[in-house]
Every structure is written in C-alpha cells, then in structure tokens.
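Explain this protein:
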Amino acid sequence: MLILTAGEVRRVLDGARHEVVAAVSRAYRLHASGRTELPHSLFLRFPEEARNRIIALPGYLGNTGDPGDGEPVAGIKWISSFPGNLAAGLERASAAIILNSMRTGHPEVLLEGSAISARRTAASAALAAATLAPPEPQTGVTLIGCGVINLEVLTYLRALLPDLAEVTLFDLDPARAQAFAERCAARLPDLRTSTAGRIDDALAAHRLVSIATTASAPHLDPAPCRPGTLLLHLSLRDLTPETILSSVNIVDDVDHVCREATSLHLAEQRVGHRDFVADSIGAVLTGGRRHRDPEALTVFSPFGLGVLDLAVADLVRRRAQEQGLGTDVPDFLAPVAREP
C-alpha cells in the first residue's frame, strides 16, 4: 500500500492545473460515452446534527482502448462535511481516497483526498466556464461563499480564462470575505479584488458567478444577475426550484444531481419530470453543443462525480511515483494464505 499525505498530494497538484483540467475533461468524456460505472453516492447522516454528513463515492473509470489512453482505475472517496468545523478553525471537509488494483482488487493507494476533491471541483467549474463561454472575453467573476472551494475555483478560472482581471466577493461573514480577499491578493496579486456588502451587488457585478456555500435549502434570488449570466452552482442547494425551471441547466449527470434535496431535485418534484435539464457537460464536451443563452441564466450544477476524483487521484499517484513521494507499507494487507 502506497500512502500519500496531504502535503505530498499538494506538492504534486501545485502547478499542475492544466493537467488536472485535462484529467477531469477526459473523465467527463468517458462518462458521456458510457465507459464508467458510477453507483449512487451513499450519504451517512446523523440525527443529532443534520448539517453534518459523510459521503461514500465509489466508481470505475475506464478508457477508450486507444494506445496511450491510460489504464482503467477503480476506487472510492470517503468525504466528510462538518460545517461547524469552521468556527473551530478547522477545515469543513476532510477526505480519504482508495485506489484498487484492477487485476486483484487489492487496495493499492491511500491518498489524503480533500485537496483532490477541492481541485477537481474547481477544475470542473473552470472547464464549464471555458466550455460555455460567451463570445466576448470574460473579464470578471463573482464568488458567493468565501471558503476553500471558491479560492480553488478562482485559481483554476484564472488558468483557463486569460482575460479574467477582476473578482467580487460576498460572504455572510464580512470578516471572512475580507480574509479571503487577502488570500486572493497573496495568491493572485495582479487580480483586482473587491468585496460587496450586499449579495445583490455581488450578483450584478459580473456575468460569471460561482456559488460555493454550506446552504442546505434554497436562499438565493438571482434576479440582480445580468442577462446571460453563467451560474456555477457548486453547492447545489442555493437556487429555488423556480430559478432552476426558468434557466438553461447543464449538469454532470442528471440521475446523480436530482437527488438529496438539491435544487434540481426540488424542481423535479415540483413538475414531475427532468425536461428542464438541457444537457450534460460531458455531452457538451463530446458533441460540441453550446447552450449559453445571451438573455437567460445558464446554471451549471455538478453533483461531483466520483470518477473525477479517481481521475485526479490516479494523476497524483502516477506523478508521486515518478517523484519518489509517499510511504510504502508492504505489510498493509494480510499475508497470502497457503493451503496445508
């Protein structure tokens, strides 16, 4: 068993943004072409604290069979979300990812998964923003929710959208927004950063908006958004069913995203069908279709497919082995049983 710590995972991922985006794009394309197995995520919840949850995301990511396309990979991500951690100075999310051998089924690699999860989410958002881009350059973005995810989203957006020059921030906690602005300035010093005192002002500032909050129920009225705005709806429960039903909706997988009281799930319950979903991002990438409406809202709602985590984890595994990173534990598994 090869064990890769948080520091080692980050060492591999730092500076590898385009490789991560390529891995995520490939996973979306393979999923769209039916070369994955993706059981529904399993949510472990707790009666005493409804906000807390731990989610299991198993999956299998195949390949095209073409030379050089890479080997299939199977595994699972086990990720917790405890929003109360933030008040204690801890990260909201923590995760572990296991990759299994496709020959024996044995677990081969254990990786710290929170950095992988955050960066595959950011890569997915940035890929959608670039794929669904309007004809004119995208020069600004609004971030609703000033946490780890949106900081990574901003970093990946900057890598894929070279004209991005300005970011507007909003958080229910003004001090959190200000601290986030300082981190933005340190990481991306040439980006103009400002904070908005009202969410309406933040929504109206730019036609690209990333929403990454801890909301468990719809709360956001996007009426102040400009015509043609793309909402990267990463936290999945911020928008009302009415907003979903009146928007152009792009998802990662309709069966996965219409679950667990997401905004799309509530919209489906409201109307009894899923016809309000225009397409999947994998189909858009594969078929070259475009769905950005210059007048209406376009909403990208990614459930967060486990095969994306596997794709990025496999990238980390390969790069770590090339660099000699990680701790090998040869006796992790039970010894081979011998017949008498």
User: Anything to note?
Assistant: The longest strand covers residues 49-61. Residues 198 and 265 are 28 Å apart (CA to CA). The chain is about 35% helix and 25% strand. The mean pLDDT is 94.
